[in-house]
Amino acid sequence: MDSLYFDFTLRRRSFAVELALELGEGAFALVGPSGAGKTTVLRALAGLLRPDEGRIALGHKVWFDSAQKADVPPERRSVGLVFQDYALFPHLTVAENVAYSGRGGVAELLDAFGITALAGERPLDLSGGERQRVALARALARDPDVLLLDEPLSALDAHTHAHVRGELREILEGLSLPTLVVTHDFEDAAALTERVGVMVDGKLVQTGTAAELLAEPSTPFVAEFTGGNLIPGDARLTSDGLTEVVLDDGARLLSTDAGEGRVGLVVYPWEIAVGRTAPLDSTQNHVQGAIASLVPVGNRVRVRVGPLTAEITGASAERLGLRTGDVVVASFKASGTRLVPLA
Amino acid sequence: MKRPFDVFLAVAAGLMLAFLLLPLLALFLRVPPGTLLSQLGSDVARDALLVSLKTSAIAHAFILGIGTPAAYLLATRRFPGRDLLVTLTELPLVLPPAVAGIALLAAFGRAGLLGGTLETAGITIPFTQAAVVLAVIFVASPFYVRLGIAAFESVDQSFLEASRTLGASSRRTFLRVALPLAAGELSAGSALAFARGLGEFGATIMFAGSLQGRTQTLPLAIYAELDLNFDVALAVGAFLVLVSISVLLAVKFLPSWTRFTSTSLFAGAPSRSS
Amino acid sequence: MYAAASLTEVFQAIDPNAAFNFAGSDDLATQIKENAPADVYAAASPKYPEELFKAGLVEKPQVFATNRLVLIVPTSNPAGIESVADLGRKGVKLVIGAEGVPIGDYTRKVLENMGATNVLTNVVSQEDDVKGVVGKVALGEADAGFVYVTDVKPVAAKVRAIELPDSAQARVEYEIAVVKATDHRGAAQEFVDRVLGKDGRRALLKAGFGLP
Hints:
The structure holds 3 protein chains of 3 kinds. Chain A is globular. In chain A, strands 7-8-9-3-10-11 form a 6-stranded mixed beta sheet, with helices on both faces. By secondary structure, chain A is of the alpha+beta class. Chain A has 9 helices and 21 strands. Chain B has a single domain (54-75, 83-268), classed as MetI-like fold. By secondary structure, chain C is α/β, with parallel strands linked by helices. In chain C, the strands form 2 sheets. Chain C has a 5-stranded mixed beta sheet with strand order 2-1-3-10-4, with helices on both faces. A 5-stranded mixed beta sheet of chain C has the order 7-6-8-5-9, sandwiched between helices. In chain C, strand 1, helix 1 and strand 2 form a beta-alpha-beta unit. The longest helix of chain C is centred in the middle third of the chain and has 12 residues, at 102-113. The chains are: A alpha+beta, B mainly alpha, C alpha/beta. The interface between B and C is medium-sized, with 20 and 24 residues.
């Protein structure tokens, strides 16, 4: 199994996409806000876009090389590309779609994806999850050496999202192809892949495992993107080894992380507890304020108190009888925070 | 109580329809069906029918065979000068037919641009059926190409890209994806072009002349018979109307599976619970 | 003024300000029958004016000019035509008026008179008015065509005329009449008078027509 190496620059209207990566076995997620250039990367790898400079090679097979003026067309690159809206051919049945690349093995694939019963259906009549499976089967039917997925879960409604995500994870784990997943949702990336790269304005800002990005975001953007609260303040070391961060409104928070000068204090919503009063334990940080909003998300509730968004279980929210406007205390440990330097 | 604007819309639509249908109705009322059929059996009518059918069929084969790939190219590729080319294909549309006839003579006539070359090759074009075919192609192809471009443009790019990433060459993508998905609109363009070609007069009479049995098409026959034998002229005219209507109806009622022109069926569509 | 195509130049010389509709005499007659807004009708043959007079659509027609036919070829004379007999050669492209159009009927009469109707097999187009014949020969596309002698002058640079024997000529008589349904009877009658009068006769002669 060959690795996919690429290193190229592609100029877009307002910024340039510059990326160098090696994709080996296993899935890599490229995450970032919309318009960061992620889909551009996918299209360039597939051969649908031509980079301005650079090189793309699968093992020894050169797909693109601006110096040698090589540019292999998509049909001769061994890629499987699953489009964001799946692009299933509407005039063909499911079986005909999967068989399109002409490689055979259609029956096995349909079986593997559990869609044999849908073989004679038209894409129009399928549900979102079913379409995704057909799109995957179709791409894999080509026996590609690289798999590219463009926002594989964004065309699904919230209800099927989690279910399909789990299925997709299993499928990706079962393959041993270099796989690139593009998504704007960090949680999806974390769920589907081992390595994640955050892309902003066409460049990679940080790569690592999802846990690494969560635990040690290198920039404020990464911190917020991975779902953390980011509170700006001024940091200074205290006598007992902790760092004190003085917020702009005067409040003081403590962190076990090291930092100096202007920093952003990062604390994740699920690290924050909410109560009517401060808890009588070793939690060092307490922020009191009125509840600005209460938003149920699945079986949890996101509570916005002052500058913080906390995430607690629905049961806790009920037990506390929380209402918007109630004055509560949001508490979190010093060890549950990170500090990132702010410009 | 209908609002005044709605009433205005209804009246305008009614007037338009009435104006379009009245002459057609009058035509059929003037000739009793029996006379219509018997006059169609006359020499002039039958010869004109043969000439028209033969020349229209050949012209149409060219229009489809060359116009379809041309429309596909103009719809899917962007290159310097593309917009100019597209505008040029629309030129014959705004040209008065007689001018088109003179232009064709200027190009293919004996004294024309290619006249000398053609003559050495032993080919004469004016006054022949080939001239009729060329005249029809010239005036009818813009209708097809324009609609063909729109048809291919309405096929979502991602289908074509998906086909390429699945290993299909440009050629295969055209045949297996673009063409089937654009088929519905292409047929409509084809019907329009065919009807236009069938009714062509000005360019034909200038470039091909009018000779019964050779170059006298149905419209030319109508004109020739107008003073001699009004009934034959009417009969042929009524017949042309019938042919045009049937062509239009045939297109409207093509099976709906040829109408896959939009991807909006899929992007962001709510999924049914699986 | 509805007038035969061959009268295009001379009628415009007689009255530059009038509104004219020049076409084949037969087409014009059909239009008048369908209540076209004509004030005056001038045809290249008595056939149609008499027909309209019998139908009560025009006043009594009067002959105002005569004409004769000539054979024209493009100046380059690609087929090398020197006489009517040459028209019978294989591959010659001959253009004549359609049946029912006066020039068409006259042409056939002339060919009959000359015993040369065989040349009709070389006809490649039958035009709806004489200017159509003139046009095709002048453009160089047709090898030869039969037109009125009066049609030669306007295209003298592009065609050459071959005279036909007087004995073979058909009787070409132009008739003019006021259309009964006219809204401008005064002006119509004035035009007819002018054509029949001194000015008209002088203009007609100058253009090459004969006088009755």
